[in-house]
Design a protein that fits this description.
single chain, alpha/beta, Rossmann fold, 7-stranded mixed β-sheet, binds 5-O-phosphono-beta-D-ribofuranosylamine
Length: 187
């Protein structure tokens, strides 16, 4: 069974969906670690409640990004983590982690990439007035939301949809699709 680490910075609803999928057996993986770049947040409460090992790390405590990532890699290796799942991790993965985990890092992004990369993808889609957006699951490379695409799902935007409504629709789809796609990758 793949031993994975989830990286998340905030709410962690996708982390929860992965935990739940592991519990019911639809995702056959072991979540060996949650990594957060913040010392508080709902995702940490979720990890505690689910008794999943977690590790908080702030880049401010390190001289540079290389040292920051070297510490993360050490934590991952000490737990024999084989695969990294980004789920709302608000930081670019740098070369130190990328080199240690080639083709073994995936991300979920709330737009149909290459449209609307980066921050506030849902707000960007609403502001652009598009009728369809969605979500993308992709491998991570050195760019911002640029790695090879694994799966996408379209979500219709209704004329009166607010940002909050679109976010809710996209996240509901994410919670179903992320565990499914990971299970396919691992099997
Ligand atoms: C998700 O919508 C994901 O697409 C994006 O960040 C959001 C994280 O939400 N990368 P949550 O923390 O999993 O609730």
């Amino acid at each position: 069974m793949k031993k994975i680490a989830v990286f998340a910075s905030g709410n962690g609803s996708n982390f929860q969906a992965l935990v739940d999928a592991v519990k019911v057996g639809t995702l056959q993986a072991e979540i060996g670690l949650l990594v957060s770049d913040r010392s508080s947040g709902a995702v940490l409460d979720r990890a505690q409640k689910e008794t999943i090992d977690y590790f908080c790390i702030s880049p401010r405590d390190f001289a540079d990004k290389t040292e920051f990532e070297m510490e993360i890699v050490q934590q991952l290796k000490s737990r024999a983590i084989e695969f990294i799942v980004l789920a709302g991790y608000m930081r670019l993965i740098g070369s130190t982690i990328l080199q240690e985990y080639p083709e073994s890092i995936v991300n979920i992004h709330p737009s149909l990439l290459p449209a609307f990369p980066g921050k506030d993808a849902i707000g960007q889609a609403i502001d652009a007035g598009v009728q369809v957006s969605g979500l993308t699951i992709h491998y991570v490379d050195a760019g911002m939301d640029t790695g090879p695409i694994i799966a996408q799902k379209e979500i219709e935007i209704l004329p009166d949809d607010t940002k909050e409504e679109l976010q809710k629709k996209i996240q509901q789809a994410e919670h179903v699709m992320y565990p499914e796609v990971l299970q396919e990758l691992f099997s």
